[in-house]
Amino acid sequence: MLKYILFCFVLGLAALPSYAQQDDQLPQKEFVYGVNFNTNGGLIGGSMIKSSRYLHDSWFKFWALEVVEVKHPKENRRYSSSTGNSFIYGKSNYLFVLRPEIGREYVFFRKAPESGVQVNGVVAAGPSIGLLAPYYIVYDYTDYSRGPNAVADYRVEAYNPEIHTDFENRIRGSAAFFTGLGESKFRPGLHVRGGVNFEYGRYREDVTGVEVGFVLEAFAKKMVIIPQADNAQFFPSFYLTLYYGRRK
After folding, report:
1. Which pLDDT tens digit goes with each residue over 137-190?
2. What is the DSSP string of the chain?
3. Could you read off the pLDDT of 233-246 as tens digits, one per residue?
4. What's the Cα-to-Cα distance from 17 to each of 4, 20, 112, 117, 200, rounded to whole Å?
5. Is residue 147 classed exposed, middle or buried when 0-12, 13-18 and 19+ CB atoms within 10 A define those classes?
6. Does pLDDT of 6 surpass 80?
7. Which residue, 125, 146, 117, is CA-closest to 210?
8. Are the CB atoms for 143 and 153 separated by under 8 Å?
9. Could you give the count of Cα atoms lying within 13 Å of 158 in the half-sphere of its Cβ?
10. pTM above 0.90, yes or no
11. 209 CB contacts (<8 Å, ≥6 apart)?
12. Core vs surface per residue 38-58: b (16+ CB within 10 A) or e
C-alpha cells in the first residue's frame, strides 16, 4: 500500500509545474507535528515533531523526533474464549523506537502565497533508541477442579509461551498497554531516512502536508519480539506521515 502511494506521489512530482519558483522570500522557521504510518507498524505507526530553519537558497536544516512501535511480521492476534479480549500469540516483547535526527530539506517547487503545493526533498540520520518492553497478559490460574468452591485467580504476568501453554482457555487477554514499560531494556541503533514531502495550505503561515519515504534502521543485536520466530537486526520500511504546523 505504501509503495503504491510513494509511486503515485513521485509521478505527481514529475508532473508539477514550476510556477512555485518565485522571488518572494522563503519562511525562516517552521514547526510541525504529525502521525506516522509505516510498513513495520500497525494501524498507526507512531508520531513525530519537527523544527526547521532556513539556511540559504532553497535549503533548510531541521531536527526531528519520531516515536514508533515496530511490530514483528508474524504477529498473530488471537481472542480469549472466556472473555473475547485479544492477545498476540507467542509475543514476548514490544519494540518501541525513539528516533532523534538531524537533516536537510531542499525545496524543489515552491508554493504560491495563497494556494498550490510545495515539494521538498528530505534526507536525515540519527541514533535509534530501541526499548524492548515485556509483553504482559492476564492468565487464569483458577483451580476449576474445586467446582463451585473454586476461587478466581487471575494474574498479570510477562507472557512466556513455555509457561502459559493453555492459550485457548487460560489467557484472558493482554494486560494494559503500558504494563512493563518500566522494565524496558535499551538497545542502541542507527537510522537513515530519505523522502519527499508535499505541503499545501490556504495561507502562507499554515503548514499541512504529507511525507512519504524510506527508513533503514539497524541495531547492535537482534530485537527479540517473538522468540519462536526469526527476529531481525535490520528494519527497512516505507512510511507515510501526515503533519500540520506553523511557519514564520
Report:
1. 999 999 988 888 889 999 999 999 888 888 888 999 999 988 989 999 999 999
2. -HHHHHHHHHHHHHH--STT--SSPPPSEEEEEEEEEETTSSSS-EEEEEEEEEEETTEEEEEEEEEEEE--TT-EEEE-TTT--EEEET--EEEEEEEEEEEEEEEEEPPBTTBSEEEEEEEEEEEEEEEEEEPEEEEE---GGGGGGPPP-EEEEE--TTT---TTTTEEEE--TTTTGGG-EEEEEEEEEEEEEEEE-SSTTEEEEEEEEEEEEEESS---SSTTS---SEEEEEEEEEEEEEE-
3. 999 999 999 999 98
4. 22, 8, 11, 10, 15
5. exposed
6. no
7. 117
8. yes
9. 13
10. no
11. 32, 118, 197, 198, 199, 200, 201, 242, 243
12. bbbbeeebbebebebebeeeb
Name the burial class of residue 20, with classes exposed (0-12), middle (13-18) and buried (19+) by CB atoms within 10 angstroms of its CB: middle
Name the grid cell of 225. 519480539
What are the cell numbers at 79? 481472542
Name the grid cell of 159.
507472557
